[in-house]
Amino acid sequence: MSQQTLMAILIFAPLVGFFINGFRYKKHSAEVAGTIATGAAVISFISALLMVIDLIGLPAEERRISVQFFDWITIEKLKVVAGFTIDQISAIMVLVVTGVGSLIHLFSIGYMHHDEGVAKYFAYLNLFLFNMLLLILGDNLLVMFVGWEGVGLCSYLLIGFWFTDKQKATAGMKAFITNRVGDAAFLLGMFVLFLTFGTLNFQEINHLVPLTSELTWLAPITMGTLFLFIGATGKSAQIPLYVWLPDAMAGPTPVSALIHAATMVTAGVYMIVRLNPLFMAAPNTMMIIATIGGLTAVMAASIGLTQWDIKKVLAYSTVSQLGYMFLACGVGAFGAALFHLMTHAFFKALMFLGSGSVIHAMHEEQDIRKMGGLKKYLPHTYLTFLIGWLAIIGVPPFAGFFSKDEILWQAFHSPRGHWVFWAMGALGAVMTAFYMTRLMALTFWGESRFSKKIHPHESPMIMLIPLFVLAILSAIGGWIGIPHVISEILPGQPGNFLETWLEPMIKTVPGTEHAEPSLEWGLMGISVMLAAISAMTAYHFYVKDPSKPKKIAASLGKLYDVVYNKYYVDEGYFCGIINPLVRLSKGIWFYIDVNFIDKTTYVISDLVRGSGLFVRGIQNGNIQQYAMYIGLGVVATMTYVLMR
Amino acid sequence: MILSAVTFLPLIFALALAFWPNERTLRHLALGFAVIEFLASLAMLAQFDSSTAALQMVEKFPWIERFGISYFLGLDGLSLWLVLLTTFIMPIVLLGAWNAIENRVKGFLISVFVLQTAMIGTFLAMDAIFFYLFWELSLVPMYFMIGIWGGQRRIYATVKFFIYTMFGSVLMLIAIIYLMFLTQETLGTMSASILDFYKLKIPFVGGQFFTLQTLLFFAFALAFAIKVPVFPFHTWLPDAHVEAPTPGSVILAGVMLKMGTYGFMRWTIPLFPEASEYWAWLFMTVGVVGIVYGALVAMVQPDIKKLVAYSSVSHMGYILLGLFTFNHFGMSGSLYQMLNHGVSTGALFLLVGMIYERTHSREISKYGGLASVLPLFTIAFFVITLSSIAVPMTNGFIGEFLILLGSFKAEPAFAYVAVTGVILGAVYMLWMFKRVFFGEKGELVKDEHHPLHDLSLRELCVLAPMVLMVFWMGLFPNQFLDLSKASIDHLVNDRTNYQLVIKGQNDLGPETKTAAISTQKTGDAQ
Q1: FRET partner for B228 with CA separation of 20 to 30 A, picked from A421, A434, A535, B200?
Q2: Domain of residue B412, residue span
Q3: DSSP collapsed to 3 states, A218-252
Q4: Which residues 141-180 in chain B show a CB within 8 A of chain A?
């Protein structure tokens, strides 16, 4: 099969699935709709696998399969081709997305079994996958942008999937509009880059990037990358545009796993990694990215400490973990960012699906205060969730440990790094360990706190299989990127596969020095120790001494309220932007449009009418009056002539 | 012959309808006529030569020789798609209005066809007086359409519409007459041909308003600006739209507004290059103000139709912005956006009309939860919404992207403001969409005495071509833009000395002499 055909199958299989399920949107059978959709996803996955195998067969420097379908927009210098590329970076992403995507499709068959709109659900899910593939594989910024907005659209549709609930519909709208703010900046970024480089093609841009870094803020590359990064803060839920993601949990749980944890929200990170030579040339942008990433990691984790909704905890956790990825990008550790993106996709999808299994078992209950002791009711879900927990808090040798450790190390050691960035990351890790342990404790451990009427039941096999697979990946997925200091002491000294694989595509920060292994070991030890202490504290609080957290919360008083209420950011946006804008618009409409502009036209027409009335008054057909006008005229003329 | 046929066939159809005895088959006949007209325009498309910017298929006959006025029709890349838009939308309008117009059907159909001739004539006429005739003729049928078949305040709205647009065009007439006298002075014989107008070198003095080119420029620009309508001359539009019957709104938004933007492209910018360049900042400013202003006001409208009307103001702001960038991106984007707006806003008015026929209300607050009752209608409305807010893969994206890119290239400050329209567009459309289609069922939706029915086969046939065009134009813009490329390139590259020739007639004889007007003349004008 030619590569063109294979690429077409890879991309368009989900689109075909979308159309099939879209046309049978009234059907209720989850099995049929789910099989079609899952089949489409699996076909994509297999095609992706075949293409990556082809890719591996190529020499390292030429690992790139490009396929061009047609010329999309051609105007003067702007030549945008509907072209798609698999290279080292997109290969990882495409496998993660189609692989995890397939698993989540499968899970959905069980989860959405009783839903009336199941065909529609699977149609949207396939449409999402299609758009995600455009985003990943597009070989230029504009094709990426097609997918970029497309996934946002599917996210909107899926968050508001149960649209009769006004809150859910509003959450969908909020997600789309917040993303649009980012997208507008993305557009500006494209304009700057196009006018600078004369192309939007990734390979060409990366090739044209000058070797010297820009030092001023208003220089084109710095501005372009900053705009793109603002775009990324929308899609990848970073400060200040992260507010839509927690609300997005209104959608069905598998959607949260697929779109709002594993794939779509990582698009911003992916975009930056894709353009890493460009971002490298803009140190100012990099500094902003690292700072925003670090702050987001800490802030979101702190909110996660206080939430009671199982999905909200995971949502803030996602925001926080995305912060790590941006932190990594910002310090120039693009490989580490991609690595964490991948492991996070495994363990966060696992935990979201696990929470779906829990919610399913608890009859749509999401409040962790009303759970507890589910370990014995849901043994398989518990086991897999446990692995996810170990992975995210960074216990070696689970996946999260390797990627998070790599980020922390680079944040400290890279020439673009700083100990402050490391400290932010470590603080985030401490909080992550705490809230995740809290989540485990309140959900699975301790006493049952739900009513006797609920009999939690383990989920069916179709939902458990994806959990098992993701659990295995969460356990061993990190082994492809084992750092040198560890591999040195392991038997056989396995190489860092990921680093070697990405090496031709990732620019390294100039001036990186070789560091003492003892320093790396030391930092690693500190962060693992801190996380362990934090996790044990949480265990003590929520399992051994459940009254303690309340006391601490009470003693914190106002501070706790502020964090619990998410720092009142949503309220701030409403008071500061949205409400004034609506008031302003109403004012413009009433005062300017109706009462000024339109009134002015009336004044003009009244003037015309008035002068008409005046003239009409003069010529009223009354002879005596006319005689008087003549007389007056004669007198006036005479006066003028005589006085002159 | 083909251009005359495309222009005047509708007029003949109108006559035929006037004498058609059978009331019941009138609509069928009219639909058939509109389809024939569309096919005729396709034949015109098939003959089109995209390799040249010259006028094609020209028909030129002397008409009032003493004043150099001629029957002069010509086609190039600037008019091609607008003519096709007109002929494409007409059968859809007629099918869409099947039940919307119940009384005096014959009069209505005659108006539609007369209007079609007027609009196509406006796009094809290359003689100023001939052009002006069509331009003004278009007012009459629309005046009756709103005034007879409109809503409650139809008389108010239609008089406002008529007088407002008339006011602008009278100034244009004066300017046209002035230009004709100028041709007599510089070329020896009086001419109203646009080709001769292009040859005039009208003196321009920057910084002084009461100079010849500036005055003529504003006389033309005002006429077109009111038609577009450009902020702040837009207040006739919401009234006209709200009162107009659905087909009237569709034609008005879909095609008639483009007569204004087309006017800028064909007349104002190439005729007065220096003044256009000098005053570009003004038009770009009102363009971006229109974008933001229209969007903000649209956001708080309680009436769906008014919302769509104000969204038009916003969208037309983009077109104006793109035109005055004077680069390939902005100009192509504007031309494309004219077509997009015709499709998406036309479709939006059709959709609003469809729901109005069911519930007799357009108040957003009375709806809610429509999506669970009318799934097909919802899908159609959603697709058109996507087009309106310019989501990639729909037509709207191509236009907006090119215009924004063009304005960023010309003057980034305008692009920074205009890009907020991308956000605000999503805000007003999606907020409306949420209130109408999502949430609990509103009072009109749950009314058990009037259960709502989803789209009928007729309505599907009305919307399907629109939805098809949304994606076709979004996915394969080159198929459209390539045909206009030569003309746009010519306009952009040779704007300061713009000349048009007639295809196959490169030697225009003694007329080709271009002569500057004596400084004496300039002094007079001042």
Answers
A1: B200
A2: 281-495
A3: CCHHHHHHHHHHHHHHHHCCCCCCCCHHHHHHHCC
A4: 160, 163-164
